[in-house]
Amino acid sequence: MHLELDWRSTVLLVTGVPSVIAAVMAWHCSRERFASVLFIGLQTAWFLLTMPYIIGFSGAYDAYPELTFFPFNTELWLGPLWLLYIRALTARALPERWWMWLLPGTIQTAYYTICFLFLGDAAAKFAFNDRVHEPYIMPFETALGLALVGFAALDSRTRIAQHRRWIESEHSNRERVDLAWLARSGFAIIMLALIWISADAIQAVTERFSYSFTFYIYALVGTVLLVLALEALSKVDVAVPKRAAFIDGDRDVPEPPVSAKIDLDAVERELRRHGWHLDPDLTLSQLARKVGTNKTALSAAINHCTGDNFTSFINRLRVAEVCERLREDKGSQNLLQIAFAAGFGSKATFNRAFKKHTGMAPSAWIRAELT
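Predicted structure:
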C-alpha cells in the first residue's frame, strides 16, 4: 500500500521534532540539569503520543495493521512529568518517593508493550481491542490521565505562584529569575491538555469527535510545547533560585530571630557605601550576611519601616542611583546603559520601578529635572 506524508503529519512533525531537539539542547547547556531531563521526558512523551496521528494520517496503520498497540500512548506520563519538572525548578529537593509519580506511565507503557509483542497478529489485536481494551481499559486510562493532568495543573499553578511571591521578597532582580514565562506556557499546556483528554473521553463515550478533529487539539498543544521549549532554551544561563522546602505547607524553615533591633538607615548607608545594590543578582540572604543579621529579621525590618518588600527597597536605591548619575552625566550615556549599570535587569523593570519611586516615567523626569 502506498504511504504519503499527509499535511497533518507534517504539521505535527514540525512542532514535535524541534521541541525535542530544543529540549535536548537546553539540557546540554542548562544550569538546571535534572529539571531539564524531566523536560526532555515531557517533550518526548508528547511527541510519542502524536506518533499514531503522524503515521496514521500517512496511511501506515492501513499498510501495517500489526502496529496496533505499539507503545505510543503516553498520556499517563504527561501530568507527573510536568509536576516533577516544576518541583525540580522551584525546590531544592523533590519529595520522598517522587519516583512513584512515574509508576502510572511506566505501567501504561509496559501494558502496551506486552500487548504489542504478545497478542499475536493484527486480527488477534483487533479482537482484544474490541472485547477488552476499548470497553474497560481505555475509559480508565482516559479518566486517570485527566486526573493526573488536572492535579498537575493545580499543583504547578500553586507552586509557581508561591515561588514568584518568594522571589519578590528574596531577590532584587525578580524578572531575571521569575517564572512568569513558565506560568503562562504551563497554563496554556494544561488547558489544552485538559481539552484534549476531555475530547478523548467524550469521543470514547459518544463518538462525537472525529479522528481528524482531534488533530487540531494535538497541533495546538504541540505549538505551545514548541514555544515552551524555545523559552527554556533561552533561559539556559539562569539558575532558578530554590526555596529551602516545598514540603509541609510550602514554608521555609524559619531562622533564629536576631535580638538586636535592625537600624535600616544604617543598612542603607552600608548599601550605598559599598554599592551592593548595584549587583543585579543581590539577594536578601546575601545582604543579611553582609550586614551581620539574618534574612527573616532584615525582611521584617524592611517591611515595617518602608511598607515594601526587599525588591522594592533595593529598586528605590537603584532609582536614586540612576537619578544621581543622570544629573552628573548630562546626557553623555544612554538611559538604559545607566539603568543596567545601576543593577536593573530589564527595561520593563526599570520603567516600572522608576515610575513607582519618582511618580513619573523616566522621560518625563528628565524633561522636568534636567531641562
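Summary: The chain has 16 helices and no strands.
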